[in-house]
């Protein structure tokens, strides 16, 4: 086969993708196809070829740095496109894994054959008569070597090292099912954007339950409820109340870190986004993962009414909360909604009891309420000692306790956060 015929066939075949047609809109693939199309002409335009070729390599180089792609950059880039492609096949595999119909599997297999032919294209050879090769992108090492979740890396390794159409497809299906596709393919935690939807959190707090000293009953209760949830057992929405800095939010993050390998993901929304809660539920219910919708520092002033949206959802609403979603919220208020003297007076509202019940009943919609009390002195010093040990701070225990006690008196009182701030201070002073 002549080089011209090879380029022509590759160009035409790449345009016949059925499932992964979104790839044809990608700038790198688009420039690659432009190059192939021009080279396959009887009288190719050298300027067009070189412009398309170097535009493609520019985009690849930029992506290698921003996406942390190494080795064969074109291959790594296309694999990244496959993992992030949100289509009917990837979404189906996310929910059902390898339990898909044979017809759909075979259609996807044809796409794999085309995609592997693109990955295996010798681009430098194709345009060798026009310019020198860009061989550095065959074994590239990016400056930005960001750390990735180990399990994600393990599944990605299998995809990248697939040596046949079948193994590529099977490893992709496994990735979709165990990790997720599109937005879910690279992150454990997300924030909700009212315009974009799910947005991955690149540097999610890697806190573990053991990092939170004490509060054993609270952590055990939260862990058991979450385990029941991801095991398909009945589980409850959870309200965690307590003073600032006691570990409420950290406990939720730690539970997600503990169970992410079992398909648990966290989606954080703000109080102001409660009006979008139905949109969040709609997006998540069809995905093949378990989600904790996390609302941190939730409380309402007496004039705010957004809590009614949340109350409706917790009550079940018309559709009810999907089985793959729970809501975990933290607050420093037991009843979430500020209660004022006017709530107790009948001069401004005739049905005073009804008004108070309306405002105080939101917290009752959470099946589990966990309290994180401020630590007493013994607990506080235990936290300090634990943190000092982890950071390998060598200091006399009596001196450490004395300084920690002085610190909490002149700062924010006793809490895990105060203890951490003290350790940060003392570690730079000795």
From TrEMBL:
Provide the taxonomic classification.
Answer: Bacteria, Bacillati, Bacillota, Clostridia, Eubacteriales
Residues passing through the membrane, by range: none
Look up keyword Cell wall biogenesis/degradation and say if it applies.
no
- Keywords assigned by UniProt, alphabetized: ATP-binding, Nucleotide-binding
Name one molecular function that GO assigns to this entry: ATP binding
InterPro entries per the UniProt record, alphabetical: DUF815, P-loop_NTPase
Source organism superkingdom: Bacteria
Q: What is this protein called?
A: ATP-binding protein
Q: Which Pfam families match?
A: DUF815 (PF05673)
Q: What PANTHER family does its record include?
A: SLR0930 PROTEIN
Gene3D superfamilies per the record?
A: P-loop containing nucleotide triphosphate hydrolases (3.40.50.300)
Which interval of the chain is the signal sequence?
none
């Amino acid at each position: 086969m002549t080089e011209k015929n090879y380029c022509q066939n590759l160009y035409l075949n790449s345009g016949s993708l059925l499932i992964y047609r979104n790839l044809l809109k990608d700038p790198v693939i688009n420039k690659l196809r432009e190059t192939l199309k021009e080279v396959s002409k009887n009288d190719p335009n050298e300027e067009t070829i070189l412009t398309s070729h170097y535009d493609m390599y520019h985009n690849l180089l930029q992506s290698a740095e921003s996406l942390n792609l190494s080795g064969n950059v074109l291959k790594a880039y296309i694999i990244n496109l496959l993992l992030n492609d949100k289509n009917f096949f990837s979404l189906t595999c996310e929910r059902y894994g390898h339990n898909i119909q044979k017809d759909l599997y075979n259609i996807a297999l044809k796409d794999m054959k085309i995609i592997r032919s693109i990955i295996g294209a010798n681009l430098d050879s194709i345009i060798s008569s026009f310019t020198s090769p860009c061989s550095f992108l065959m074994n590239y090492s990016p400056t930005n070597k960001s750390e990735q979740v180990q399990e994600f890396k393990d599944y990605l390794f299998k995809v990248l090292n697939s040596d046949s159409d079948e193994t590529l497809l099977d490893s992709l299906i496994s990735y979709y099912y165990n990790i997720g596709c599109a937005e879910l393919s690279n992150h454990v935690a997300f924030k909700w954007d009212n315009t974009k939807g799910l947005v991955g959190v690149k540097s999610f707090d890697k806190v573990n339950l053991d990092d939170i000293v004490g509060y054993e009953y609270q952590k055990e209760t939260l862990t058991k409820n979450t385990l029941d949830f991801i095991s398909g057992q009945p589980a409850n929405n959870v309200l965690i109340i307590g003073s600032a800095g006691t570990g409420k939010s950290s406990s939720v993050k730690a539970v997600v870190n503990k169970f992410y390998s079992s398909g648990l993901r966290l989606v954080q929304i703000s109080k102001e986004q409660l009006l979008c809660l139905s949109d969040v539920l709609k997006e998540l219910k069809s995905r093949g993962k378990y989600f904790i919708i996390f609302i941190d520092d939730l409380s309402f002033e007496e004039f705010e009414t957004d809590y009614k949206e949340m109350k409706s959802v917790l009550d079940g609403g018309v559709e009810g909360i999907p089985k793959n979603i729970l809501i975990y919220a933290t607050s420093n208020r037991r009843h979430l909604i500020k209660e004022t003297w006017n709530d107790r007076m009948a001069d401004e509202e005739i049905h005073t009891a009804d008004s108070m019940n309306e405002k105080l009943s939101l917290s009752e919609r959470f099946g589990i309420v966990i309290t994180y009390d401020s630590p007493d002195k013994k607990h506080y010093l235990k936290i300090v000692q634990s943190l000092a040990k982890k950071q390998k701070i060598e200091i006399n225990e009596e001196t450490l306790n004395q300084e920690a006690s002085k610190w909490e008196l002149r700062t924010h009182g006793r809490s895990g956060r105060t203890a951490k701030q003290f350790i940060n201070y003392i570690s730079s002073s000795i």
